[in-house]
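To the wet lab folks,

You asked to see what we're planning to order before we commit. Fair enough. Below is the target structure as tokens, and below that is the sequence we designed to fit it. If anything looks off to you, flag it before the synthesis order goes out.
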């Protein structure tokens, strides 16, 4: 079994296949040649339908990619993950976010502890919703990275399941411009602060928590213990900070995989215990699909293989995510951490430098907004960037009467835009087609052939479309778990550790060294640029 995909026999076969058929593959020709292409290349997973047919793949490519997965022992690696083997080798830890969503009595690792922790966290959340901590109207969640992005993204996505009289705020940045405007609108007596930090050592979170506590006391707040709660795997540090109520979790929950743990407390406060359990159930359904579906129909595996095909054979360096649902507008930011912090690695598990590319840049914006910003580049730029569209069939506007009618019409417009973009990316437009068109806004004086070249599109630009029936706690849970497993699959194929993040350490250490210099102005021993900038920033 090859540890890394580039050392497996299938790798060389894929290279030969790419040179012969992959490089010049044209999706339009593939559709013309195969009337059953959509049916053959679309897949069902729990809560998620995936159309992969607009990608530069066909049956022979998929067969070789699946061989690659088998050569790399992807099933054994997956089973080791799910079993709780210490797959995070550099930290000597298991990686068991899947255990957090396994139902009671399922036999999953740590099931009894997980259920007890979940029950306690949900009981607390329901208590806050009921008024056990007084009439709480605002919850300020203070955390960063994995202790922010997941909960913030989910609370926004499930806004329709929230309560208008209970507002959730997320503060992450050490920049006081994040915290200050949030506090400005609050009544200390009706505010609950949740301080979320796995390590409880993170500079940004501790600074914001300290400032929030100072503000609370200055507002006449007397009962810190009642208005501050922590979620952390370092409950001792939370207690030292002065927080009595702390929900703990385990080192086998990675920060970017932690929304399913007590870090999900703001989600549970926002939507309630029942919906939080539905979120877990959706993720668990995807876990089961990942664990048991044959690789040929295993959606996280297929998406991971497609990522390797594009990154390592086509050489595409980024992927754009376009969720056509306003509630999912933070999904790209969430996925940036999930994918780039997990798979942005340069050495394999044995510490050998990799000679193949790893994590692409993941970026995006909610549709249709992105269309009016950077889609120009996706359609006509010199780089090919695979796009992932996410469409939601049924909206949940919570509107009635005439407004509901109008918004239903807007939803059709939204879906038409989503379909049109992937169609346009694939279809393109030749110069001849552009020449034949009437373009009333175009120059009347420029040479018509030149103008047609400006107005043509290369097409054959790949995209995947994921479809949810509705954006519900369950479907969202399944969607997030799909992405988690896909990131695992690519990381496992590349033979890297997807579960550490040593790359963030150097900047943190240098920040700690620079901090006193920002007060003293001392630049001795610094490089010329840093010294010059520091002088500029501290000058009177
Ligand atoms: O700096 C990166 C990181 O360690 C992330 O992996 C993590 O999600 C984030 O910081 C926050 O860490 P913590 O939850 O310990 O405050």
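Sequence we intend to order:
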């Amino acid at each position: 079994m090859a540890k890394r995909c580039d050392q497996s026999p299938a790798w060389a076969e894929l290279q030969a296949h790419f040179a012969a058929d992959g490089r010049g593959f044209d999706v339009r020709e593939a559709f013309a040649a195969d009337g059953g292409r959509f049916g053959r290349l679309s897949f069902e997973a729990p809560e998620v339908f995936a159309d992969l047919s607009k990608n530069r793949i066909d049956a022979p490519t998929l067969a070789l990619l699946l061989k690659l997965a088998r050569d790399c022992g992807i099933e054994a690696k997956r089973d080791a993950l799910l079993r709780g083997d210490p797959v995070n080798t550099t930290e000597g830890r298991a990686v068991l976010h899947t255990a957090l969503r396994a139902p009671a009595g399922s036999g999953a690792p740590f099931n009894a502890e997980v259920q007890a922790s979940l029950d306690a966290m949900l009981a607390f959340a329901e208590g806050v919703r009921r008024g056990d901590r007084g009439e709480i109207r605002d919850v300020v969640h203070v955390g960063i990275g994995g202790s922010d992005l997941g909960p913030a993204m989910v609370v926004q996505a499930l806004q329709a399941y929230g309560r208008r009289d209970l507002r959730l705020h997320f503060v992450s940045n050490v920049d006081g411009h994040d915290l200050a405007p949030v506090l400005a609108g609050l009544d200390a007596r009706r505010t609950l602060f949740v301080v979320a930090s796995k390590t409880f050592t993170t500079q940004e979170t501790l600074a914001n928590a300290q400032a929030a506590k100072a503000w609370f006391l200055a507002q006449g707040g007397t009962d810190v213990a009642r208005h501050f709660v922590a979620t952390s795997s370092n409950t001792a540090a939370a207690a030292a900070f002065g927080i009595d109520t702390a929900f703990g979790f385990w080192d086998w929950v990675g920060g970017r995989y932690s929304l399913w743990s007590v870090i999900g407390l703001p989600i549970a406060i926002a939507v309630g215990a029942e919906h939080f359990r539905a979120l877990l159930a959706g993720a668990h359904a995807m876990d089961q699909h990942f664990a048991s579906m044959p690789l040929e129909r295993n959606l996280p595996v297929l998406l991971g293989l497609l990522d390797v095909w594009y990154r390592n054979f086509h050489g595409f360096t980024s992927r754009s995510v376009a969720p056509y649902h306003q509630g999912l507008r933070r999904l790209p930011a969430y996925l940036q951490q999930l994918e780039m912090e997990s798979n942005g690695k340069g050495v394999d598990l044995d510490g050998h430098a990799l000679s193949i590319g790893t994590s692409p840049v993941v970026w995006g914006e909610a549709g249709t907004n992105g269309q009016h910003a950077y889609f120009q580049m996706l359609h006509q730029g010199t780089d090919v960037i695979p796009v992932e569209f996410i469409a939601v069939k049924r909206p949940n506007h919570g509107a009635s009467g005439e407004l509901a009618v109008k918004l239903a019409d807007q939803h059709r417009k939204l879906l038409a835009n989503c379909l049109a973009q992937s169609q346009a990316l694939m279809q393109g437009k030749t110069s001849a087609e552009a020449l034949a068109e009437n373009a009333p806004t175009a120059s009347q004086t420029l040479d018509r052939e030149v103008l047609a070249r400006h107005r043509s599109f290369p097409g054959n630009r790949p995209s995947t479309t994921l479809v949810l029936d509705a954006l519900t706690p369950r479907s969202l849970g399944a969607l997030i778990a799909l992405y988690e497993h896909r990131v695992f699959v690519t990381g496992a194929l590349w033979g890297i550790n997807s579960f550490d993040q040593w790359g963030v350490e150097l900047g943190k250490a240098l920040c700690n060294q620079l901090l006193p210099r920002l007060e003293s102005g001392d630049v001795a021993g610094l490089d010329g640029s840093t010294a010059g900038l520091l002088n500029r920033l501290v000058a009177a």
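Structural context that might help your review: The chain has a mean pLDDT of 97. Residues 401-427 form the longest helix (27 residues).

Thanks,
Computational group
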